[in-house]
Prior knowledge:
By secondary structure, chain A is an all-alpha fold. Chain A has two domains: 1-50, Arc Repressor Mutant, subunit A, CATH 1.10.10; 54-186. Chain A has helices spanning 2-12, 19-26, 30-37, 40-52, 66-80, 84-96, 105-127, 135-157, 164-179. In chain A, α1 (2-12) crosses α4 and α5 (66-80) crosses α7. The longest helix of chain A is centred in the middle third of the chain and has 23 residues, at 105-127. The N and C termini of chain A lie far apart (49 Å). Chains A, B: InterPro entries: BetI_C, Homeodomain-like_sf, HTH_TetR, Tet_transcr_reg_TetR-rel_C_sf. Chains A, B: This is TetR/AcrR family transcriptional regulator.
Amino acid sequence: MLNIATDTFAARGYNNASLAEIADRAGLTQAGVLHYFRSKSLLLTSVLERRDQGDIEQLGPERPRGLAFLRHLVDTALRNAEREGLVRLYAVLSAESVTEDHPAQAYFRDRYTGLRAFVTDALTEACGLPDPDAPRTRDAANAIIAVMDGLQVQWLLDPDAVAMAASTDLVIRSLLSTLAPDRFSN
Amino acid sequence: MLNIATDTFAARGYNNASLAEIADRAGLTQAGVLHYFRSKSLLLTSVLERRDQGDIEQLGPERPRGLAFLRHLVDTALRNAEREGLVRLYAVLSAESVTEDHPAQAYFRDRYTGLRAFVTDALTEACGLPDPDAPRTRDAANAIIAVMDGLQVQWLLDPDAVAMAASTDLVIRSLLSTLAPDRFSN
């Protein structure tokens, strides 16, 4: 059931997906779906929560630190090229979440806030920077998250033209060289 | 009329926007809107074409070259922070375009193909690289476009947390240092 809902939201977006279609593909009635999930927006919440299991940004204090965290981001980009459905779900819903009254708006706002803090921490630690709140470190962290997101849309439209992991790795290495030229040479 | 359609597509996405609402806000009947634009998808085409006027990727052979082109991208990110409606339109529709049978899918695929070629050219020229088809240059070009796109979604959700122009500038400078360390030092 959640697989079908995931596929349908990824293929159509949340707003354009219909509960009737999801129920039909799952061999249930709409009333049957609503019995378990109460509403279309709560079904979306279940899809997003399941998607997060095992994702690094949900690891909390147990996550890898510093350079190991940044390497994990490149590994994630590499794995993403093997899981097009999840990439599509995330790309479509994160952008759709900025539309009016979207039920996943708070989810994505909070997700980015958490991710930004994690990547900023990792850069600060990897580069041995004195100030954890330096604007340039924050700008670099936001850029790393942005490049991963933006590459997904380009890759979904034209997979042969985009190497998500190689581009992500290049940006992270280049930013490390800028933030800490003594530690990371070009 | 196109302003109202632009605002409505930006606020709701294409799939979720209704012609009835657009007509109503414009003080027209649906038949009146269809008289001028034929269909909802042709109305979207008109909105996207108008949005492109004056945008750098449409400048063709007259566009600035090399470093001047890259600087123009940073200027675009700076100007984007003053035109939230257009940013929203682009962010929502580009991601929505990867959904099934979306009428703007070819538009965005072509747009990215063109942009990638322009940014690859600019990097090759700015860095004095011998090979215009080097994979690393392509990876860097894709990343620059991606970072601009990804920052828009983060900024729309949380404007105070994201400096689009500063992050874009930092990524471009860092990539230049990686691609041509003799020309661009950190």
